[in-house]
Write a structure and sequence with these properties.
The chain contains 23 helices and seven strands. By secondary structure, it is of the alpha+beta class. The strands form two sheets. The chain has a five-stranded mixed beta sheet with strand order 2-4-5-7-6, covered by helices on one side. Helix 7 packs parallel to helix 9.
Amino acid sequence: MKCIFWLTLLLLTQTTVSLNASNETDSLRSVLVALPAEERMERLSELALRRLDDENGFYPKWFYREAFDGKGDKYKSDALYLLVRHYYGTNPDSMRYYIKESEPLFLSEGRYEDLCRMKAWNIYSLSAEGKQDAVLPSARELVQLAKKIDFPEGEEMANQALANFYLKHGLKKEGVALYEEVLYRMERRNAPVIKRFSILRQLVNASISEGDHDRALELLKACLLECEEKGVAELDAETSLDYGWYVYFRTRAADACSDKNAKEAKENLEQAEYLVKKHNWIREKITIDNIKFYYFQLTGRYAEALAVADELLQCMQKANKFAGVLNIMEQKAKLYYLMGNGMASAGTYQQFVALKDSFTSAKYYDELANLRTQHDVDKLELKNKQMELEASETHSQILIMGGGLILLLLACSTLGFISYSRHKYSKQLQVAKEKAEEADRMKSAFLANMNHEIRTPLNAIVGFSQVLVDEEDMEVRQEYLKIIQNNNELLQRLVNDVLDLSKIESNSMTFSFFNIYLPEMMDEIYRSTQLRMPEKVVLELKECPAINFYTDRIRLTQIITNLLNNAIKHTEKGFIRFGYDVLETEIKFFVEDTGEGIPEDKLESIFSRFVQLSDWSKGVGLGLAICKGLISKMGGTIAVTSRLGVGSVFYVTLPIQKA
């Protein structure tokens, strides 16, 4: 019976390429659940170890739950190790949580190598996340642990991770020297040849001098040949010898593309691609496609290069690899230019510039959007500390007053009053200092961001104006002129938004209220907005009840237009509907769309300055902030309801006033 279950499980596993992921998981679940507990744990352990491409971590998580529910205590450390390994590539914070949980268990079981390896993973993650201040303390902590448990390999793992950190931050000489020191230590203690593979692979993949790179690649080849001679098929529990050769051929192919050696590139690329297909290494397919992209460019096969580029863009966008997306977009623009398609090149380059601007400015937006929130939190913490201090001081005074004489009480009261007065004055000075510092931070951040935002359209205007002079093709010239005009409008809109926001916050915005016929104004907004609608989006105006509304026509038009522009930016298909309802004492305007929707964590901050829904969002994030400021000055309110992936509805309520 066990053999039948295992054969069924193997068949299901081997057909994963042609099955839907959810169907595969359900089928495997039904097979595994039917197994006895002990055998189920064995199979889960094997699947969790083998399924490196399982991005959701289904098997490591299931294995962990089974091991910790009382059924399989002996599998606990294995489950923790596999779960840490899964989170190493997907969620560093979760990885660190499980490392901390696993440390006592691994120390008690003597699994020093696995414990040190997990702590080294943490150092790699800290380096990748840019948490430079935490890298050196974590490396020192691992070295101290290795010395405490008398495990020299732990020190080598810490130095490897530290060398990787040096290389990533431009300290190439120091990084190579530290790697070579680790290799020397391994040779001195006669470490197995497979231990050197990971170091050589990191050196080969690192951005180092050409001489160091070639030397490391030859050492890697010698290491792999030595393993073949000794009949070693697995470099370690997770890396096969075939994967080692794949790394070698992949690197040789990439080097040949850089050296413009098409013949050598083709030979090594074919070897690497053969190994990827043989073992179905899904994650490595992106790397192979990336090398193919440059190989096709090198050999003049531009159409094939464009097809590969489109596939890479989809993969990188799903994985949020922004740097990779920008690189491929820039290369696509160059390809179109080489193919003689100037218009496609200009359009792709324009998309590249827009995406690069969005990615670069995303951090600015987050910092500016969170600055006020962080300041409020700091003020709240300061207030709590002050309350604790005041409570402590009050408690001390009560103790003193309770046991003193009247004269002592009067003296203490006098001293307390003087102390309180001085404390209050000091507190006022501190608050004034904080306000000044906050204003300076806000001003600096605002100016830095505005400098960046204004430069973006200016760069496009200047750049395409220079190219326009040398371009003879009229269609391409028209495309360049269109780009220049769009950036002119963007620059003008940006300046106007900043001026409006400045007037609102300085209370210098003026309003002119008159009676207007509201249906006529809404029809004008409809006709002007209709000209800017995307192809797959329908603009609808709800039937407007007849009413004369006492308001500022210009500001009300600005509010509704801003909300419509916001809907257009985030709606690719469906409809955008707007209108109003007349209530007893107020008029309730609305703008509804079938766009991407707003995440729940953004709903409270969406009306703040520089808040964007994602790194892909368009604009600078001032429109909704201006709307809120204008509506507040006009005595109204604004609100939003939204469902992610379904759409959003913005409501503006303004009071009905008499002329």
